[in-house]
Design goal:
The complex is a heterodimer.
Chain A lengths: L1 H24 L1 H4 L31 H37 L1 H16 L2 H12 L3 H27 L3 H8 L4 H9 L4 H24 L11 H9 L7 H28 L7
Chain B lengths: L1 H28 L13 H10 L6 H13 L14 H36 L4 H15 L2 H15 L11 H31 L2 H8 L4 H13 L1 H16 L2 H6 L5 H11 L2 H29 L1 H8 L1
Classes of the chains: A mainly alpha, B mainly alpha.
């Protein structure tokens, strides 16, 4: 019963993600208009049969812009999550495997970063390194790996006491071999689940940042920065903010639902929904 | 207990010094300053400005000067709000953010713990499924999306609450709900899982066998034992809500510290950025002390550990 339910969740969540990723990749073919085509005869129109989601203040087709914006939002999420998982895994694994004073020191640093509010930290980092797309990516990545490091360290602490690790050590395997060949492959389930949850978290952070005007800036556009554009005209042209918001919400829900489903199967110990 | 608090407060001082120093260094290695952006200033005027803000002195003496003032509670003048001190701006705006943040903490704990208990006590029923469905939606909705929806529904359509500004309790309701929903959803999931674990333990069966009512068992036996993860979450949460309300303050045009922080970042008003960051660090230190105190209040085992 549990497996079936999580299977259904995975199908729904995963299906939607597949759909939106395909749409983002196929944006040049799917989009009814070029994303930067300004039609001065169709400014700020509501949804119609020609422009399914209306047009913005420059007469650009909103659906086309949303499809292209998906590329930015999704790639920021995926890139950040990939960095977080790669770096966080190595950091956490090394810390947990070595243990002792080194572990203590490495984890103090993680605790410090962890205790600071993410958004505050991201903004402070972008103040120093600049606010381009690269700056945003870097800032998001620098903040998000600590969660992964904590989880993986916990797993490694548990796994390194297992007897097969002792056996590997007894036959003379090197530390690196033990860590990367015997211990880390056993954290794969947890890793996949963590990756799935890091992506929506990154998309959320990026969109929030872009919405308050401290994130992705023109000429680039993400769903968050498009919502920001729609914000000022919200009372009279609600479609400009509602459609980007809807895309964002559905995508983040899909990732979270998929993550819940995956966790029930791959990491039942940590399940909490 | 008093000794514990004093000890922890004393530890907060080096933390604050570290934060002050780090932000000072970060803000000064950035190329360009707030006076570089617009058209080039005549060199004499530029020299005057630099002298006024001590920018012509060596970095080290600027740092010493900054720390000296800091000890006296003076965070320096703002670069962009001419004639205003950062301390004054913070004094004026922090109470607003604090009020908003704390009401959001209260709302999220009440809703979150309540929903979590309801879901756990009727596990796998429709209450549980609906609650957890809503919780998943709740952790997925960006606060600016929620804020927009609330404004559209309750301000524009129903005209129940004002959409912006800060002039009385009615102005605080929509922002507080916007801020509280995401943590409420998270707390609901946390409480439910923790409750479910506790409800399977022997002492719960014993309590039921003794004939206590279900409500009594839930609140007096189960809740107390399952609330620890929620409390650990409360420290970072309070810090995040009191400090991280800049999105909500932006949406609802609330004159809080967060909105000034955003403008300070876009204007590169370094003294203001550093000042606000310091206040945030102070909030985080205090929130963590508060959480540690709650631990020992809820869980007697922690008290013993601390004495040892």
């Amino acid at each position: 019963m549990g497996i079936m339910r999580s299977n259904r969740r995975m199908k729904i969540g995963g299906g939607f993600i597949l759909l939106i990723c395909t749409a983002a990749l196929a944006a040049p073919w799917l989009a009814p208009f070029p994303f930067d085509l300004q039609d001065t005869h169709a400014i700020l129109q509501g949804p119609s049969s020609e422009h399914w989601m209306g047009t913005d203040r420059l007469g650009r087709d909103l659906l086309s812009r949303l499809l292209y914006g998906a590329r930015m939002s999704l790639s920021v999420g995926i890139f950040t999550a990939a960095f977080a998982v790669l770096f966080g895994t190595v950091y956490g694994a090394v810390s947990g495997y070595i243990g002792g004073k080194t572990d203590n020191l490495l984890m103090r640093f993680v605790d410090l970063v962890y205790s600071l509010p993410d958004l505050l930290l991201i903004i402070l980092i972008t103040v120093t390194i600049g606010r381009g797309v690269l700056g945003i990516l870097l800032a998001l990545s620098l903040v998000s790996w600590v969660t992964v490091a904590r989880i993986i360290r916990g797993e490694v602490l548990k796994l390194r006491e297992f007897s097969y690790v002792e056996a590997a050590r007894a036959v003379g395997a090197s530390h690196r071999r033990i860590l990367f060949l015997h211990i880390l492959p056993n954290t794969l389930g947890v890793l996949i689940v963590t990756l799935t949850f890091r992506i929506p978290a990154a998309i959320l952070a990026e969109s929030t940042l872009s919405f308050i005007g401290l994130g992705i800036a023109p000429p680039f556009a993400s769903w968050g920065s498009m919502a920001n554009e729609g914000w000022t005209a919200m009372k009279f042209y609600p479609h400009l903010i509602l459609f980007p918001s809807l895309f964002l919400f559905l995508t983040i829900v899909a990732f979270n639902v998929l993550g819940d489903g995956l966790r029930d199967i791959l990491d039942p110990g940590r399940r909490f929904a | 207990m008093t000794r514990f608090i004093i000890h922890r407060l004393a530890w907060g001082i080096p933390v604050l010094w570290l934060v002050a120093t780090t932000t000072f260094i970060l803000m000064h290695i950035v190329p360009g300053g707030p006076f570089d952006q617009e058209k080039l200033l005549p060199p004499e005027i530029r020299a005057n400005i630099d002298a006024k803000y001590h920018l012509d002195k060596p970095l080290l003496s600027q740092y010493v000067f900054y720390l000296q003032n800091l000890v006296h509670g003076d965070l320096g003048p703002s670069y962009k709000y001419i004639g205003r001190d950062v301390t004054d701006i913070i004094k004026e705006t922090f109470p607003v953010s604090l009020q908003l943040g704390l009401s959001a903490v209260l709302i999220s704990v009440l809703i979150g713990v309540g929903a979590g208990i309801a879901a756990a006590s009727r596990a796998r029923s429709w209450v549980d499924h609906t609650g957890m469905f809503l919780a998943t939606a709740g952790i997925s909705i960006p606060s600016f999306v929620l804020g927009t929806l609330l404004i559209m529904i309750f301000s524009f359509k129903l005209r129940l609450f004002p959409a912006a500004l800060w002039e009385g309790w009615r102005y605080g309701i929509l922002p507080a709900i916007t801020l509280a929903l995401l943590p409420a959803a998270y707390i609901a999931r946390l409480t439910r899982s923790s409750m479910l674990e506790v409800l399977h333990q022997d002492f719960i069966r014993t309590a039921r066998a003794k004939g206590f009512g279900e409500g009594y068992v839930l609140f007096n036996h189960a809740l107390k034992n399952s609330v620890t993860p929620v409390i650990s979450f409360l420290g970072p949460l309070t810090a995040t809500l009191v400090t991280g309300s800049f999105v909500v303050e932006f949406i609802f045009s609330i004159p809080g510290m967060g909105r000034y922080f955003i403008t300070a970042v876009t204007n590169r008003d370094y003294p203001l950025i550093m000042g606000v960051t310091l206040v945030y660090a102070l909030v985080i230190v205090l929130a963590n002390i508060g959480v540690d105190m709650m631990y020992s209040w809820i869980d007697p085992r922690m008290r013993v550990k601390k004495r040892a």
